[in-house]
Design goal:
mainly alpha, 78% helix
């Protein structure tokens, strides 16, 4: 399971996801006064939650790219479409009220991050990526069948 056998689309998924995370960090740094102002009552809790959020995202990328978890691949796609719905719903409410709480730079960063995450999720469903996730399942099924038959020997006679 080296990087040489990993499909390019799965590699690009990881890169685009990390790029989306970098865009979110850049957004928070550029709009630091607004970000801190929203959480003035508990700035330490906000920092801890942000760090935990990024750790979970890094773990998720590892789960999809390195562990080849097929269920995580599907959850990634579902989450991206749910986030697009939530963002669209939020923009609909803002348009109805007639005023926006964010700035133009926040909107640009939000669009860049969303496009990056959505494109990354779609890359997980290319032909090569699909075979990457299916191959692991077939590999374990074959190993399980060999163990059930009692053949622990490899084809070369070794264990």
């Amino acid at each position: 399971m080296s990087d040489q056998t990993m499909p390019g689309s799965v590699r690009y998924y990881g890169r685009l996801t990390y790029a989306g995370m970098a865009v979110i960090v850049a957004n928070q740094l550029v709009n630091w006064d607004r970000t801190v102002g929203r959480f003035a009552e508990a700035p330490h809790i906000f920092s801890v939650v942000e760090i935990l959020f990024f750790c979970v995202q890094i773990f998720w990328v590892w789960l999809v790219v390195r562990k080849r978890a097929n269920w995580a691949r599907w959850m990634t796609l579902g989450t991206q479409f749910a986030m697009m719905f939530i963002i669209g719903f939020g923009f609909g409410i803002v348009a109805e009220k007639g005023h926006a709480d964010g700035t133009a730079t926040e909107l640009v960063f939000l669009i860049l991050a969303t496009v990056s995450y959505l494109l990354a999720a779609c890359l997980l469903f290319t032909r090569g990526a699909t075979l990457w996730f299916v191959h692991q399942t077939a590999e374990f099924a074959h190993a399980g069948a060999d163990a059930a038959n009692g053949s622990a020997l490899r084809s070369d006679g070794s264990f």
